[in-house]
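Tutorial handout. Part one gives the primary structure; part two gives the three-dimensional structure as tokens.
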Amino acid sequence: MKCFKCGRQAVASFRQIGSLCENHFLELIEKRVRKDMRTKRLIRKNDRILLINNESKEYHTGYYLLKRIIKDLPVKIETRKTSNLAASSKKHNKIIIPWSLDDEAEEFLNMVFSKKKPKKFSKKTIKLLKNVTEEEIEIFAKIKKFKCRKQAKPRIKKMLDELEKRYPGYKFSLLNSIKQMKELK
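Part two.
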């Protein structure tokens, strides 16, 4: 399999866009996260950012992309292993949590099917990788050789993976539906 942009050996293949080599794949993910940060104005000059470190692939990928995207922007980034967001948010005006598109879809489906209340996050909370699937994050982490802690997949995430295999683009369609439903509130 060859990259459709440059002809080098591909590391990922997507039905919607084709096969991509390492460089073009990394560029695609960074561009997607960068666009989300820019359009939603997530990070600004002089922000004090807390990045929650759970040693997952989402944390490592998010940290790497955050550093690349903000480059010389004068912000303070602190990483901390914590589950108590309220206590750690006093001296930070932004909190970045390790959260992927799969997490967003899982939370929504739990709310719909199990009538579970969605997790409450403060307005300071940023879901940096909300537009990136776990599969893409896994490939990103493998390319960058991040040492990540393995996590068990809940049943709903396994179901989402099966649906994505059968119907490519399903997760992105679900995310767009979730966004539209939130706008109706």
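Part three, for discussion. The beta strands are 12-14, 18-20, 48-52, 76-80, 94-96, 125-126. The radius of gyration is 17 Å.
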